[in-house]
Task: structure prediction
Amino acid sequence: MAWTQDQMAARAAQELEDGFYVNLGIGIPTLVANFVPADIEVWLQSENGMLGIGAFPTENEVDADVINASKQTVTTIAGSSIFGSHDSFAMIRGGKINLSILGAMQVSEQGDLANWMIPGKMVKGMGGAMDLVAGVKRVIVLMEHVAKKKDGTEDMKILTQCTLPLTGLGVVDRIITDLAVMDVTPQGLKVMELAPGVTLELLQSKTGAKLI
Result:
């Protein structure tokens, strides 16, 4: 019925273009590194200070000193560079990153993004999210379509208006979930693609904003 997390990441990897500099956010977006097409050159950037991230390491390749912003061990590729976070944020704030693929807690039909805190829960801070959505040319959200709670109920994550503290206003260009691909347009959320077996009616029933 729905895409797995790996299938979601593979779909997001189709958004990559040759020569792109791309920032991958925490969570499902980090999986995109495993699906970069072999026929293009893409430079994956991590805000903790790395440019040129490869796929996740095998057991024999693990180096505890080489990590991404999610504190996951990663590999380097030929030409990788490692530097201070001040240089990393200079890239981001200077508009040098072509694409950022981020997770989210909520997205509105206008492309507003909430992805850094839930009130009442302990958080480590916003991290680089605010800089990324302000400084990067294109922002794609990659997330599960709904939030599944322990009691089996679901909270909608795509809404008319976000109810959580915002990371940025009108910053999201495309949303990729386990159910569909949607674009943020001036007219609202436009469905571009459905996961196999997912109907528009099912998608709408799990979305808190009107779909086009």
